[in-house]
Design a protein that fits this description.
A 5-stranded parallel sheet has the order 3-2-1-4-5, with helices on both faces. Helix 11 links the parallel strand 4 and strand 5. The radius of gyration is 17 Å and the shape is globular. The chain has about 220 residues and is of the alpha/beta class.
Length: about 220
């Protein structure tokens, strides 16, 4: 039996998959905050030798939220302020330049997916928590998504199986006809646990990861 494109969906994590990571936009951050170029040296997956804190997160010694809470406080201190809320960091660092944050590869994949008649969804642990409601509303192509499931409101964090089931329920599609894309290994393991087809997104090779996801969907 042939599956119609309308019965398929691309399900994307937001931070790092749809957006460029904060590691990739240090120049934007430094410019926005009035910091000297080169002030921010932690590079996460792009150079783990610069970022032992990132290594700790990958080893699950701290959570992703712990990592970004620490970075938020560090950057706040650099500008002489007390920051405890991740969205303060994001809004101050890049809130005025939402267009610069969208991955070009994500733009291409989103437009191609919609043009082919497939559904699009976001499954995020912290979309509004990290980015803020106003940033999300202004974000390019956000209106292309049929479903947004955000743990800021559901309180169900990936890799909890209920997070994946929630987005599938809202899409109303068979999981076998969907592909989930996330850059965090633990969230991919969650997809495996619920038999959801997936691509482990490599932030250092975004075009390759998107090509893999679209190929799985027959595009």
């Amino acid at each position: 039996m042939t599956i119609r494109n309308a019965d398929k969906a691309l399900i994307l994590d937001f931070g790092g998959v749809v957006t460029r990571t904060l590691f990739e936009t240090h120049d934007v951050t430094e410019r926005a905050l009035g910091l000297k170029p080169g002030t921010l040296t932690w590079r996460g997956p792009f150079d783990t030798s610069t970022d032992p804190l990132w290594v700790s997160m990958q080893n699950r010694e701290i959570t992703e939220r712990d990592y970004w809470t620490i970075r938020t406080r560090e950057v706040g201190t650099l500008v002489g302020e007390d920051w405890s809320d991740m969205k303060t960091f994001v809004q101050r660092a890049r809130g005025a330049e939402a267009e610069l944050v969208l991955r070009p590869e994500a733009r291409d994949a989103i437009l191609r997916t919609k043009a082919a008649g497939l559904k699009l969804a976001i499954l995020s642990n912290e979309l509004d928590l990290f980015y803020g409601v106003e940033f999300r509303k202004r974000f390019p192509l956000i209106d292309q998504f049929d479903v947004i499931v955000d743990a800021t409101y559901t309180r169900i964090l990936k890799p909890d199986p209920r997070a994946y089931e929630r987005v599938l329920d809202e899409l109303g599609l068979d999981r076998a006809n969907c592909v989930f894309v996330d850059d965090q290994k633990k969230n991919i393991e969650g997809a495996v646990a619920v038999d959801l087809p997936h691509v482990h997104f490599d932030v250092t090779r975004p075009a390759q990861s998107y090509a893999q996801a679209l190929e799985q969907l027959g595009l």
